[in-house]
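Minutes, project huddle
Topic: does the predicted pose make sense with nicotinamide-adenine-dinucleotide bound?
PN asked that the exact inputs be recorded in the minutes so nobody has to dig through chat later. Recorded below.
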Amino acid sequence: MSAATSRFLITGSMGCIGAWVLRNLLDDGAHIVATDLSIPDDKSTTRPGLLLDNDELARVHWQSLDVTDANAVNSLVSEHKPTHIVHLAGLQIPFCKADPTMGAMVNVVGTVNVFEAARNNNVRGLTYASSVGVLGAPELYPDRALTDADLPMPNNLYGVYKMANENTAKVYWQDWQVGSVGLRPYVVYGAGRDQGMTADLAKACLAVAAGKPFHIRFDGPVTVQHANDVARIFIDSASVEYQGAGVFNLRNDVIEVAEFVALVKELYPDANITFEQNNPLPFPADFDDAGIQGVLQRVAHTPLKKAITSDVEHFTQLLNSGRLTTESLNS
Ligand SMILES: NC(=O)c1ccc[n+]([C@@H]2O[C@H](COP(=O)([O-])OP(=O)(O)OC[C@H]3O[C@@H](n4cnc5c(N)ncnc54)[C@H](O)[C@@H]3O)[C@@H](O)[C@H]2O)c1
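Predicted holo structure (tokens), as shared on screen:
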């Protein structure tokens, strides 16, 4: 099915990855139903507003949707009959910790509701966001790039809920042949990444554009993916209409934070970016993405240097046009 004849429904469209999914789908010419918990009238300062101009924002069909409401999810899917769904709505690690019941409602029940709606309405392709958060502490794993087959051993509720999503997908395939692809991003960077510690690489690029100092709060080796590439991989994975319940690691770049900072300084000698020493993230660092490479003809991957320069340029434009402030650097 060509992109132009596809109808995509996105959950979590106001989020970082959601915004980049919209950018890519508009470029593809797909029909888009973009949903999130609430949709403001003025979208110019939302995350999609960082990537879409006002005409493009107006071309998207926006619809508020709470994924915890099973009837609302099913009604919307049955009304719009999407051929494909990209399910990104979710609460991140700190929010699941602060409110475990709400975390489970959104991340677990919300995902069941999306699968149920896909089953009832014969959706052809479904991708959903899992996470490297399904894995446990690095010392639990062998010292090599982890494959899709390495055992999930989550040590926080977010990871437990994402693991429930992966197992939900397996049962929907086994019992009702609802095919899906679950993807496990790690440190996603790019415009729109503004919350949580792992947003610090994106914030560092914003700081460079603004001529401000910035301190990245972690170090060590990490797997990083640009949000534009992640969005493309979500769309492409839905478009292949996968027959099974695939769960795949993403890789793209594995770097030391020190290398990232050195690269930024090489590109922008005046940049004042530092990082916290001896404070690695509590997840394994390196992933083998042979699984997703086997599913897609090409896994989107922007080289790091190119991604950093285009992000700094993009942030500069956004700051100059007033669509973005440096407020997120302080949180
Ligand atoms: N960004 C990363 O580094 C990363 C890494 C691994 C996994 N993920 C997963 O990818 C997905 C998207 O990530 P993101 O960075 O775009 O997240 P984000 O936090 O920027 O966006 C999530 C969106 O979900 C929406 N949402 C929350 N509750 C909802 C509800 N009840 N109904 C409908 N929408 C609701 C929020 O309003 C928000 O717009 C998430 O599921 C996240 O867990 C992200």
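Observations noted during the meeting:
- Residues 3-188+224-252+282-301 form a domain with the Rossmann fold fold (CATH 3.40.50.720).
- The chain is about 45% helix and 15% strand.
No decisions taken; revisit at the next huddle.
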